[in-house]
Amino acid sequence: MIPDIELSAKLAHEVLQVGNKLKTAIDQASDARNNLSGIAQDNANSADFMQKNSTELNLLALNLNELVKNFKF
């Protein structure tokens, strides 16, 4: 009878340890997901910023091209 109780206690302790490790892994996965979400948002903002700047740069280049045409002989 006592060996059964000792085995049950040992197994319960192992289950608790595995549960704690699983919680830690879930917390780490959640943190990683949150970090990736933030990075994805930052990337989207950067892409929008670059698109707006590239459009403006294109217009400036077109205007500069028109100005340079005035200096050609």
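The record above closes out task 2.4. Task 2.5 opens with a second protein, given below.
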Amino acid sequence: MGLSLFAFRITPPVQYKIRFRPAFSLLYITLKPKEQLYVSLDTLVSLDEGLTLKMRLGLGWLASLLFRGLGGKIPVLNLVQNPTTEPLTFTLSQGALGDLIPLDITKAGLCIQPAFHIAHTTGVRMGLQWAGFSSWLAGQGLFALKLSGKGRVFVASCGYLSSYPVHQRLAVEHHHLVAYSPKLKLRVNFPKGVVGSEVSGEGMISQLIGGGAVYLQSRSLSGLSRYLRLKCR
């Protein structure tokens, strides 16, 4: 007889280790008996025999349809479970070069760019937060992915990931933005014009207004792509 979902432990934290930082980070997760963890698709590298995978929508059906109808990519997750009586380990990584860090989710929550989500504990819930039309014009969609509840999320970055406090206003290049406090209002500006920014991938400046924290990556995939194109000519 299969084990019920309610038989699994849902309290964080899980045991983890991050190796080969900061350029080639590999996340080792050890699940105790009956523990489980949500992981993004295409992040799994290896897993011990005995661990099980179940595919889940990151959002509810209604939120998923709304997110997809407004141009967003529905987050689909694997639920990794340990139904055995001994600790088992699996490893996760990201597609780009860069770092992996754990962030604790508190009552305030965290807004994150979906591409940088690696995994989260079962005490964390995924939802949506209005990001505005300027975010949609920047190719990020009308809604941001919001993590709430209590637990831990593992976040990826291209290059090194740093946190900065925002007291009133902070301007950042949009492609370096990984995550930010939900209390911050996001506004994307196009100094070189909407058409020029969409074609070149440059010039998109995010204005974060209010009080909270922002997480920025030291490199960006768009910058890496431009660098490779110049070198391969």
